[in-house]
Design brief:
single chain, 321 residues, alpha+beta, Porin, two-stranded parallel ribbon, 46% helix
Length: 321
């Protein structure tokens, strides 16, 4: 099948998939690779932000699954749901951008509180604190603050060394912070499109899973390894800024600096499962979700994941401060 022709126009007169897109009868025979091909096209259009075409691709996918699974009695599997994969990436980017915006806003507020004759060191200190916060975002990677914005933590550190006054620091920080707004709005629009497409994709998966559709591969469960004596009470440096945890038996509660974050969970062995929540609503789908963290036997570090209630998520790691 010519995948390029599908990607360009979608409604092309292909025997296996093109006829499905225009609502014609199910064709007699589709190639075994047709589901994979449509999945690849969906992914390409998602990456390009072609939301309408991706939606039409999902319609084509449903009909192709029907043809192979029901008509031809051929096993059908999907390595992953491309909408979920893309949504997770967009949600992570949006969370990173919001964290960067807050770090810059905090630094701007500090700079605004300085007197016009503040010392050079006071200005540099604000820059140093800002760089430390930015280095914790996105797993400590010194990535650009936004697409098309060349500033990163290392560049900002150098820029602050050259600022001559508090007023200059205010102008510099305000410009950096405001440069994030277009990227944040774009990520929010992408999120809205992807959530709508996710609902359509989930409907297809839910419809055909009972009939034999397999999505992903089942992961064998491994019993949690007991970690006697582990107590996580204390202060932690994490992906989402400083965090303070308090443990009582197997129950853990805590707070972290990003958006007034809160943590609550329960230990099983050395694995903590629970929930995170943040301002303003402290509720799903976008201000709360789940956590699964595995702590080292010495209780000095952890690594794991977080998810939104609305779908998607990322990694979360930390070390004792």
């Amino acid at each position: 099948m010519n995948r390029t022709r599908i990607a360009r126009g979608l409604l092309v007169p292909l025997v296996a998939v093109g006829a499905l897109l225009v609502g014609s009868a199910v064709p007699a025979a589709a190639s075994p690779e047709s589901v994979d091909n449509v999945i690849n096209v969906i992914d390409e259009n998602l990456q390009a932000g072609k939301w309408s075409l991706a939606g039409q691709n999902i319609d084509a996918l449903e009909k192709t699954i029907y043809n192979e699974l029901i008509v031809r009695k051929t096993p059908v599997s999907m390595a992953s749901n491309p909408v979920d994969v893309r949504l997770a990436a967009v949600l992570q980017r949006l969370k990173d951008l919001k964290a960067e915006y807050k770090a810059l806003s905090d630094a701007l507020e500090r700079a605004q509180q300085l007197s016009a004759r503040a010392s050079k060191q006071a200005i540099i200190d604000i820059g140093g604190e800002l760089v430390s916060k930015l280095q914790l975002i996105n797993g400590g990677k010194l990535a650009p603050l936004a697409a098309g914005n060349s500033h990163n933590a290392q560049v900002i550190a150098g820029d602050f060394a050259n600022l001559r006054s508090a007023n200059a620091a205010v102008r510099y920080l305000a410009g950096l912070r405001d440069s994030l707004i277009p990227a944040i709005r774009e990520a929010q629009r992408d999120r809205a499109h992807l959530l709508a497409l996710k609902a359509r994709m989930d409907k297809v998966v839910a419809k055909y899973t009972p009939k034999g559709l397999v999505v992903g591969a089942a992961s064998p469960t491994t019993p949690a390894t007991p970690a006697p004596g582990v107590n996580v009470t204390g202060t932690w440096s994490t992906d989402w800024n400083s965090m303070t945890l308090s443990q009582s038996g197997s129950a853990v509660t805590g707070t972290y600096d990003h958006d007034g974050g809160r943590i609550e969970g329960t230990f099983s062995g050395n694995t903590l499962t629970g929930r995170w929540s943040e301002a303003p609503s402290y509720a799903g789908p976008m201000d709360a979700g789940t956590i699964t963290w595995t702590f080292a036997a010495d209780g000095k570090s952890f690594s794991g994941t977080w998810t939104y209630d609305g779908g998607g998520g990322g990694t979360w790691v930390g070390t004792r401060s």
